[in-house]
Amino acid sequence: MRHILLYIFVTIVTLATSARTEVEFDGFLQGLFGARLDQANPVMTEFPVSESRFQLRAQHWGDRGQAFARLDFVYDGAGEVPTTEWELREGYFKFRLGNSIDVKAGRQILNWGTGDLIFINDVFSKDYKSFFLGREDQYLKAPQNAIRIGYYNPIGELTVVWTPRFTPNRLPDGTRLSFFNPMTQSIVSNSSYAEANLPDPKFENSEVATRLSRRIGNFKGSAYFYKGFYKNPIGFDQTAMLPVYPRLNVYGATLRGALLGGVLWLEGGYFDSRDDLDGNDPFMPNSSINGMIGFERQIATNLTANIQWQVDYMLDYDLYLVELSPTAYIRDEAKHLLTTRWTKLLNSELITLSFFGFYSPSDEDMYLRISGAYKYTDEIELTVGANVFDGKNQATDFGQFMLNDNIYMRLTYGF
Q1: In angstroms, rounded to a whole number, what is the distance separating the alpha carbons of residues 150 and 184?
Q2: Which residues contact 49 (CB under 8 A, 6 or more apart)?
Q3: What DSSP state is assigned to residue 397?
Q4: pTM score
Q5: What is the C-alpha separation between 14 and 195, in angstroms, rounded?
Q6: How far apart are CA 29 and CA 294, in angstroms?
Q7: What is the pLDDT along the chain (415 residues), one digit of tens a residue?
Q8: What is the CATH number of the domain that holds 188?
Q9: Phi, psi at residue 26, to the nearest 5°?
Q10: How far is CA 312 from CA 109, 333, 338, 365, in A?
C-alpha cells in the first residue's frame, strides 16, 4: 500500500509536468523535540518525540481541475532504534462536472462540523498521538482514501463522502504515550496493548457521510448523516478477546453565524449504536445524544477568546448500570465538557500566545494545551509548548493520560 501511495504522488507530479503547465512546489523542514515530565510513566523512553520532518507539497491548477499532493518524510529518533518513515498525507485529483458538481478523489484530509477541537458530526479520522505530542495542529486530522462529491443548487449544497475502507482514529498505543487498559485496570505501556481488528474490507463495511448545507439569514445550517463505525475500538469481542470497532450511524445538525459581535455555533447529533440497539450489551457502547454550544469574539486588541459546552447523554442508562462490571468505572448519564481557547498576538503579531483548556466537571478530568510561537522571519518560526493532563480517575477520557505531561520545542523553516 505504501508503494502505491508513493506511486500516486509521483504520478500527480509527472502528469502535471508532462502537460507543460506550471507546478507549484512548497513545504517545510522541521525539528520537533519533546520531554516527559512524569517519571512514573510506564513508557520506556523519556523523550516521547524527537523527529526531523520534511514536507513537500506539489500543486497544479488547470482548466479542468486541480492535482495536489503532500508528502512527509520523517527521521524518528525517539525509539530505541531510530527509524525513517514517510507518509502520503494527501494525493488527490479535483475536477468539476458541468456547472454544479465537484469531484475530489484520492487521499485527502476531511473536515466538517462547527466545534473547536470538539467533534460530533465530524466523523473523519483523527490522529490523537500527534495531537498529544506537540505536532502542528494540521496533524490532528489523519488522511483517508475517499471520494468526495459536492452538488450545488438553489436549495443548498449537498456533499457526499465515500470511504471504501474504514479508517479509524490513531490513538496512543503505549509506545510514546501510556493509556488506561480496562482489562488490567491500570495505566500501561505498549506491552499491554492489544490492537483491534479492522472491519472486513467489504462494500457493506465502507463509510458514507453526507451533509446538506444552506444559508439561513446570517447563519449557515447543515444536516448530516453517517454510516460506518465508531472511530475508537470501544467495543469488545468476547470470542477473540480483543477490542473492536462497533457499527455506528450518526444523525446530526449544525448552525453557525454572527451574533453579538462574535460568532455563535450550535451542534447536535444522535449516535445510533448498531451493535447494541437495546442498550443491554455491556461489551458494546450504548446509543447517545450529543449537543454543543459555542461562542467566540475578540475581547481586546489582538486578543480572541471562545467557550464551548458539550453534553453527551447516554440512552438506556439504567441497563448500562445493571450490566456493568463491578470493577468498571461508572460514568454519569450526562457527561459534560467545557472548553476555552485564548489567543493573544504580540510584537506586531510576530508572537502568538495560545491556551486551550478542556475540563469535564462530570468526569473530573482536564487537558491543557499551552504554546507560544515566535515568527523570526517569514520562513522561520520557533514554537514551545506543553501538554498537561490530570484526572480524579484513570479510566476517564483525559485521566487515562495523566502520566503523559510533556513539554516540546518545534523549529520550522518554510519554503
Answers
A1: 46
A2: 32, 33, 34, 78, 133, 134, 135, 176, 406, 408
A3: T
A4: 0.91
A5: 38
A6: 35
A7: 555 555 555 555 555 555 555 889 999 999 999 999 998 999 988 899 999 999 999 999 887 789 999 999 999 998 888 999 999 999 999 999 988 999 999 999 999 999 999 999 999 999 999 999 999 999 999 999 999 999 999 889 999 999 999 999 999 999 999 999 888 889 998 877 788 989 999 999 999 999 999 999 999 999 999 999 999 999 998 888 899 999 999 999 999 999 999 999 999 999 999 999 998 898 999 999 999 999 999 999 999 999 999 999 999 999 999 878 777 889 999 999 999 999 999 999 999 999 999 999 999 999 999 999 999 999 999 999 999 999 999 999 999 999 999 999 999 999 9
A8: 2.40.160.10
A9: -155, 180
A10: 26, 8, 12, 15
For residue 8, the number of C-alpha atoms closer than 13 Å in the C-beta half-sphere is 22
Residue 317: its H or E element: helix 317-323
Cell 456533499 belongs to 159
C-alpha cell at 370: 499551552
CA dist 228 and 80 (Å) reads 37
Q: How many domains would you assign to the chain?
A: 1
Asked whether 309 and 338 are in contact (CB, 8 A), the reply is yes
Residues 209, 161: contact at Cβ < 8 Å? yes
Q: Which domain, by its residues, includes 47? A: 2-414
And the C-alpha cell for 101? 458538481
Residue 10: exposure state from Cβ atoms within 10 A (0-12, 13-18, ≥19):
middle
Query: CA dist 368 to 283, 303, 337, 361, Å?
Result: 31, 19, 13, 15
